Protein backbone atom coordinates (compact mmCIF):
# COMPACT_ATOMS: atom_id res chain seq x y z
CA UNK A 1 0.00 0.00 0.00
CA UNK A 2 1.40 3.35 -1.04
CA UNK A 3 2.03 5.62 1.97
CA UNK A 4 0.58 9.12 1.92
CA UNK A 5 2.82 12.13 2.21
CA UNK A 6 2.47 13.77 5.63
CA UNK A 7 0.92 17.04 6.81
CA UNK A 8 -2.27 17.11 4.75
CA UNK A 9 -5.98 17.75 5.26
CA UNK A 10 -8.28 15.63 3.11
CA UNK A 11 -11.89 16.73 2.49
CA UNK A 12 -13.76 13.47 2.03
CA UNK A 13 -17.40 13.39 0.85
CA UNK A 14 -19.51 10.53 2.16
CA UNK A 15 -22.75 8.96 0.87
CA UNK A 16 -26.00 10.85 1.47
CA UNK A 17 -27.83 7.54 1.90
CA UNK A 18 -26.64 4.60 -0.13
CA UNK A 19 -23.24 3.43 1.13
CA UNK A 20 -22.35 2.19 -2.37
CA UNK A 21 -22.03 5.83 -3.49
CA UNK A 22 -18.68 6.27 -1.78
CA UNK A 23 -15.75 6.38 -4.20
CA UNK A 24 -12.83 3.94 -4.30
CA UNK A 25 -10.52 6.89 -3.76
CA UNK A 26 -12.40 7.98 -0.62
CA UNK A 27 -12.13 4.48 0.87
CA UNK A 28 -8.44 4.35 -0.02
CA UNK A 29 -7.76 7.73 1.66
CA UNK A 30 -9.71 6.79 4.80
CA UNK A 31 -7.62 3.62 5.12
CA UNK A 32 -4.37 5.58 4.96
CA UNK A 33 -4.96 8.75 6.99
CA UNK A 34 -4.27 8.97 10.73
CA UNK A 35 -7.30 10.81 12.12
CA UNK A 36 -10.91 11.33 11.05
CA UNK A 37 -12.78 14.49 12.03
CA UNK A 38 -16.45 13.59 12.20
CA UNK A 39 -19.53 15.76 12.53
CA UNK A 40 -21.28 12.76 14.10
CA UNK A 41 -19.04 9.97 15.44
CA UNK A 42 -21.84 7.38 15.65
CA UNK A 43 -22.86 8.04 12.04
CA UNK A 44 -19.26 7.93 10.79
CA UNK A 45 -18.58 4.65 12.60
CA UNK A 46 -21.39 2.98 10.63
CA UNK A 47 -19.63 4.02 7.43
CA UNK A 48 -16.06 3.05 8.34
CA UNK A 49 -17.13 -0.21 10.03
CA UNK A 50 -18.97 -1.17 6.85
CA UNK A 51 -15.71 -0.83 4.91
CA UNK A 52 -13.63 -2.40 7.72
CA UNK A 53 -11.67 0.77 8.43
CA UNK A 54 -10.26 1.36 11.92
CA UNK A 55 -9.16 4.90 12.70
CA UNK A 56 -9.07 7.44 15.52
CA UNK A 57 -12.19 9.59 15.25
CA UNK A 58 -12.47 13.05 16.79
CA UNK A 59 -15.76 14.89 17.12
CA UNK A 60 -15.84 18.04 14.98
CA UNK A 61 -19.17 19.84 14.72
CA UNK A 62 -20.37 23.43 15.17
CA UNK A 63 -20.00 23.18 18.96
CA UNK A 64 -16.41 21.92 18.78
CA UNK A 65 -15.06 23.63 15.67
CA UNK A 66 -13.83 26.90 17.19
CA UNK A 67 -11.98 25.24 20.08
CA UNK A 68 -10.41 22.43 18.06
CA UNK A 69 -9.00 24.26 15.03
CA UNK A 70 -5.66 25.14 16.65
CA UNK A 71 -5.25 21.61 18.05
CA UNK A 72 -5.91 20.05 14.65
CA UNK A 73 -3.49 22.40 12.89
CA UNK A 74 -0.86 21.36 15.45
CA UNK A 75 -1.59 17.66 14.82
CA UNK A 76 -1.21 18.08 11.07
CA UNK A 77 2.04 20.03 11.49
CA UNK A 78 3.48 17.22 13.63
CA UNK A 79 3.06 14.86 10.68
CA UNK A 80 -0.50 13.58 10.89
CA UNK A 81 -2.81 13.26 7.88
CA UNK A 82 -6.38 14.22 8.73
CA UNK A 83 -9.66 13.59 6.92
CA UNK A 84 -12.66 15.90 7.38
CA UNK A 85 -16.07 14.19 7.08
CA UNK A 86 -19.59 15.52 7.50
CA UNK A 87 -22.49 13.25 8.45
CA UNK A 88 -23.43 12.96 4.78
CA UNK A 89 -22.37 14.55 1.52
CA UNK A 90 -19.54 16.98 0.85
CA UNK A 91 -18.01 18.60 3.97
CA UNK A 92 -18.34 22.36 4.59
CA UNK A 93 -21.48 22.69 2.40
CA UNK A 94 -23.92 23.71 5.12
CA UNK A 95 -21.69 21.84 7.55
CA UNK A 96 -18.77 22.76 9.85
CA UNK A 97 -15.22 22.92 8.51
CA UNK A 98 -14.60 26.21 6.75
CA UNK A 99 -12.72 27.69 9.74
CA UNK A 100 -10.37 24.71 9.77
CA UNK A 101 -9.79 24.95 6.02
CA UNK A 102 -9.15 28.69 6.30
CA UNK A 103 -6.62 28.02 9.08
CA UNK A 104 -4.90 25.40 6.90
CA UNK A 105 -4.52 27.97 4.12
CA UNK A 106 -2.96 30.42 6.57
CA UNK A 107 -0.61 27.71 7.86
CA UNK A 108 0.41 26.57 4.35
CA UNK A 109 -1.02 23.10 4.97
CA UNK A 110 -1.89 21.26 1.78
CA UNK A 111 -5.63 20.71 1.33
CA UNK A 112 -6.85 17.89 -0.87
CA UNK A 113 -10.59 17.92 -1.69
CA UNK A 114 -12.15 14.75 -3.08
CA UNK A 115 -15.19 14.91 -5.38
CA UNK A 116 -18.32 13.12 -4.25
CA UNK A 117 -21.97 13.19 -3.18
CA UNK A 118 -23.86 16.45 -2.56
CA UNK A 119 -27.62 16.50 -1.88
CA UNK A 120 -28.17 19.89 -3.53
CA UNK A 121 -26.47 18.94 -6.80
CA UNK A 122 -28.06 15.49 -6.88
CA UNK A 123 -31.53 17.02 -6.52
CA UNK A 124 -30.78 19.72 -9.09
CA UNK A 125 -29.75 17.13 -11.68
CA UNK A 126 -33.21 15.52 -11.37
CA UNK A 127 -35.19 18.78 -11.59
CA UNK A 128 -35.84 18.81 -15.32
CA UNK A 129 -35.55 22.59 -15.14
CA UNK A 130 -33.44 24.51 -17.64
CA UNK A 131 -30.38 25.95 -15.92
CA UNK A 132 -26.76 26.90 -16.26
CA UNK A 133 -26.81 28.96 -13.08
CA UNK A 134 -28.47 28.37 -9.72
CA UNK A 135 -28.70 29.77 -6.19
CA UNK A 136 -27.90 27.51 -3.25
CA UNK A 137 -29.43 28.98 -0.09
CA UNK A 138 -28.97 26.13 2.41
CA UNK A 139 -31.57 25.75 5.16
CA UNK A 140 -34.45 28.19 5.25
CA UNK A 141 -34.39 30.38 8.40
CA UNK A 142 -36.33 28.99 11.36
CA UNK A 143 -37.97 32.29 12.32
CA UNK A 144 -40.99 33.37 10.28
CA UNK A 145 -39.87 36.98 9.79
CA UNK A 146 -36.36 36.01 8.66
CA UNK A 147 -37.81 33.40 6.33
CA UNK A 148 -40.18 35.90 4.74
CA UNK A 149 -37.40 38.48 4.35
CA UNK A 150 -35.17 35.96 2.56
CA UNK A 151 -37.93 34.71 0.27
CA UNK A 152 -39.00 38.25 -0.64
CA UNK A 153 -35.42 39.02 -1.66
CA UNK A 154 -35.53 35.97 -3.96
CA UNK A 155 -39.04 36.44 -5.34
CA UNK A 156 -37.79 37.68 -8.72
CA UNK A 157 -34.59 35.64 -8.81
CA UNK A 158 -34.42 34.15 -12.30
CA UNK A 159 -31.98 31.39 -11.37
CA UNK A 160 -33.15 28.09 -9.90
CA UNK A 161 -33.14 28.20 -6.09
CA UNK A 162 -32.17 25.28 -3.85
CA UNK A 163 -33.20 25.02 -0.20
CA UNK A 164 -32.77 22.40 2.50
CA UNK A 165 -35.62 22.01 4.97
CA UNK A 166 -36.42 19.84 7.98
CA UNK A 167 -39.43 17.55 8.30
CA UNK A 168 -40.64 19.62 11.27
CA UNK A 169 -40.89 22.89 9.31
CA UNK A 170 -41.72 21.78 5.78
CA UNK A 171 -45.45 22.62 5.87
CA UNK A 172 -44.95 26.08 7.39
CA UNK A 173 -42.16 26.79 4.92
CA UNK A 174 -44.27 25.73 1.94
CA UNK A 175 -47.06 28.05 3.09
CA UNK A 176 -44.57 30.94 3.24
CA UNK A 177 -43.15 30.03 -0.17
CA UNK A 178 -46.67 30.05 -1.65
CA UNK A 179 -47.45 33.37 0.01
CA UNK A 180 -44.42 35.02 -1.61
CA UNK A 181 -43.70 32.99 -4.78
CA UNK A 182 -47.29 32.11 -5.63
CA UNK A 183 -49.22 28.84 -5.96
CA UNK A 184 -48.03 27.80 -9.40
CA UNK A 185 -44.24 28.03 -9.19
CA UNK A 186 -42.62 24.76 -10.31
CA UNK A 187 -40.93 22.93 -7.46
CA UNK A 188 -39.07 19.65 -7.08
CA UNK A 189 -39.13 17.71 -3.83
CA UNK A 190 -36.14 15.41 -3.32
CA UNK A 191 -36.55 13.44 -0.10
CA UNK A 192 -34.39 10.69 1.37
CA UNK A 193 -32.24 10.64 -1.76
CA UNK A 194 -30.38 7.43 -2.69
CA UNK A 195 -32.26 5.45 -0.02
CA UNK A 196 -34.79 2.72 -0.88
CA UNK A 197 -37.67 5.03 0.12
CA UNK A 198 -36.38 7.95 -1.96
CA UNK A 199 -38.99 10.37 -3.35
CA UNK A 200 -38.33 12.63 -6.34
CA UNK A 201 -41.51 14.54 -7.17
CA UNK A 202 -41.93 17.58 -9.41
CA UNK A 203 -45.10 19.61 -9.12
CA UNK A 204 -46.37 23.10 -8.20
CA UNK A 205 -45.91 24.74 -4.82
CA UNK A 206 -49.62 24.52 -3.94
CA UNK A 207 -49.85 20.85 -4.92
CA UNK A 208 -46.77 19.93 -2.89
CA UNK A 209 -48.35 21.56 0.16
CA UNK A 210 -51.53 19.56 -0.47
CA UNK A 211 -49.54 16.30 -0.63
CA UNK A 212 -47.86 16.99 2.72
CA UNK A 213 -50.99 18.28 4.48
CA UNK A 214 -53.01 15.27 3.35
CA UNK A 215 -50.24 12.83 4.24
CA UNK A 216 -49.79 11.65 0.66
CA UNK A 217 -46.12 12.32 1.34
CA UNK A 218 -44.84 11.66 4.86
CA UNK A 219 -43.03 14.35 6.84
CA UNK A 220 -39.95 12.23 7.32
CA UNK A 221 -36.29 12.30 6.36
CA UNK A 222 -33.92 14.74 4.67
CA UNK A 223 -35.62 17.26 2.34
CA UNK A 224 -34.28 19.27 -0.59
CA UNK A 225 -36.48 21.77 -2.45
CA UNK A 226 -35.53 22.90 -5.96
CA UNK A 227 -37.63 25.89 -7.03
CA UNK A 228 -37.84 27.16 -10.58
CA UNK A 229 -36.61 30.69 -11.22
CA UNK A 230 -38.87 33.69 -11.71
CA UNK A 231 -40.32 34.01 -15.19
CA UNK A 232 -41.33 37.48 -16.34
CA UNK A 233 -44.77 37.64 -17.85
CA UNK A 234 -45.18 39.42 -21.16
CA UNK A 235 -47.27 42.07 -19.46
CA UNK A 236 -44.75 42.70 -16.67
CA UNK A 237 -43.32 46.17 -16.25
CA UNK A 238 -39.73 45.89 -15.04
CA UNK A 239 -38.41 47.49 -11.86
CA UNK A 240 -36.10 49.62 -14.00
CA UNK A 241 -39.08 51.16 -15.82
CA UNK A 242 -40.91 51.84 -12.57
CA UNK A 243 -37.81 53.46 -11.10
CA UNK A 244 -37.62 55.85 -14.07
CA UNK A 245 -41.30 56.71 -13.70
CA UNK A 246 -40.99 57.39 -9.95
CA UNK A 247 -38.07 59.77 -10.48
CA UNK A 248 -39.97 61.71 -13.16
CA UNK A 249 -43.30 61.91 -11.35
CA UNK A 250 -41.71 63.82 -8.47
CA UNK A 251 -40.96 66.75 -10.78
CA UNK A 252 -43.62 66.57 -13.52
CA UNK A 253 -47.21 65.37 -13.91
CA UNK A 254 -47.99 61.65 -13.88
CA UNK A 255 -49.26 61.86 -17.47
CA UNK A 256 -46.03 63.47 -18.69
CA UNK A 257 -43.91 61.06 -16.59
CA UNK A 258 -45.65 58.09 -18.25
CA UNK A 259 -45.09 59.58 -21.69
CA UNK A 260 -41.37 60.19 -21.16
CA UNK A 261 -40.80 56.83 -19.39
CA UNK A 262 -42.49 54.96 -22.25
CA UNK A 263 -40.29 56.78 -24.75
CA UNK A 264 -37.06 56.09 -22.81
CA UNK A 265 -37.75 52.36 -22.44
CA UNK A 266 -39.43 51.91 -25.81
CA UNK A 267 -42.69 50.46 -24.52
CA UNK A 268 -46.28 51.30 -25.41
CA UNK A 269 -47.57 54.33 -23.52
CA UNK A 270 -51.03 52.75 -23.01
CA UNK A 271 -49.51 49.61 -21.52
CA UNK A 272 -47.52 51.64 -19.00
CA UNK A 273 -50.52 53.87 -18.27
CA UNK A 274 -52.78 50.88 -17.52
CA UNK A 275 -50.14 49.44 -15.21
CA UNK A 276 -49.59 52.74 -13.39
CA UNK A 277 -53.27 53.47 -12.71
CA UNK A 278 -53.64 50.05 -11.06
CA UNK A 279 -50.65 50.70 -8.80
CA UNK A 280 -51.04 54.44 -8.16
UniProtKB/TrEMBL annotation:
Domain of life: Bacteria
CDD domains: RsmI
Catalytically driven reaction(s): cytidine(1402) in 16S rRNA + S-adenosyl-L-methionine = 2'-O-methylcytidine(1402) in 16S rRNA + S-adenosyl-L-homocysteine + H(+)
Enzyme Commission number(s) from the entry: 2.1.1.198
Domain Tetrapyrrole methylase: 8-204
CC annotations in GO: cytoplasm
A GO molecular-function descriptor: rRNA (cytosine-2'-O-)-methyltransferase activity
Location within or outside the cell: Cytoplasm
Job of this protein: Catalyzes the 2'-O-methylation of the ribose of cytidine 1402 (C1402) in 16S rRNA.
UniProt family annotation: Belongs to the methyltransferase superfamily. RsmI family.
Record HAMAP family: 16SrRNA_methyltr_I
Full protein name: Ribosomal RNA small subunit methyltransferase I
